[in-house]
Amino acid sequence: MRRVLQASALTLGLATAAAWPAAPPPGDPWPRSTPEAQGLEGERLHLLSRTIEDGRDFPDLHSLLVVRHGYLVLEEYFAGWHADRPHTLQSVTKSFTSALIGIAIAQGAIEGVDEPILGFFPDASGIANLDERKRRMTLEDLLTMRSGTDYHERGSGSPHSRLNRLRSGWDRFYLDRAMVAEPGTRFQYDSGGVILLSSLLQARTGLHADAFAERHLFEPLGIEGAAWFRNAEGHPHTGGGLDLRPRDMAKFGLLYLNRGRWGERQIVPESWVRQSTARQLERRSGSHGVGYGYLWWIEEPDPNGTGKLDIYAAKGFRGQYIFVVPEHDMVVVVTGGTRSYTDEVRPVDFLYSHILPSVTAP
User: Fold this and answer.
1) Global pTM value
2) Which 8-state DSSP code applies to residue 177?
3) Closest Cα to residue 267, out of 72, 113, 102, 108?
4) Which of 91, 114, 88 lies closest to 101 in space, CA to CA?
5) Helix, strand, or coil (residue 357)
6) Of 140, 156, 254, 266, whose CA is between 20 and 30 Å from 32?
7) Residues in the chain with pLDDT < 50?
């Protein structure tokens, strides 16, 4: 497998007037403001930055960005990282993949979330462990990690570890998995089904997921230099293989905060944003949120707010996060290289202990 860098010389897209205060010329930095001017307590945020830099309470983090009302009010890098250095997103990639599926459905390339997975593979006769349960597996089952297969990520000999060592055949490896439950009935964290979505996109659009993303998502957002981990067949690792700059992660969060709209263009259908970030199932498991949507984690609302609007998040191994906070018109991005699960989930803690309490005005 190899990393492939894709770059473009594209202009920065416009955002809605409420979310992007001005349309900066191509190449200009994100519009900036102070936390205080955007209704945030700057000292609390800067204290958090200093604590991260100190490395004792929140170790091994690489960046922290806060966007409020479309302005970048905090951008800090740690441990030698900087704004122009792309970062591996790990499973934050999954939420980007969800957006690609929503765009493909809007274009008519995919019928909808109820479409059976085997319908994307006309020659299904040679698939192993084929039974009626596997025939009933739908796109929604993969988006909500309820495929019913035996795919899991626990340990060095897990199906996921084995797939990651394959140079090709990711789709067939997943399709051949044994069924252990009725699709749609049991949640099991499953990157393999998300990786399979790359093949589904290629089957229906004629483009690999990276090329589809470049044309229909990254270009209109002005995201340049995306890098994907791909196999020998050209399939990108849509479960965790995307590298982007933290600012570009923030753009994606802002796109979802604006219900899929960027300037005058609806990039991701508003209905898809709503479905993807709704609680398609309830999940209460430590710091893994209270629900799961279509490859988005759903978090509790701000306990000091109205309590009505969920926070939703893209999360990745070793401390990668995009938090979208609709109630406060806010996006928070964190990247890291944490070395324990305890440290990996600390950004969820400081979202609630430091960032949300910093809000002083609408």
Assistant:
1) 0.92
2) P
3) 102
4) 114
5) helix
6) 266
7) 1-28
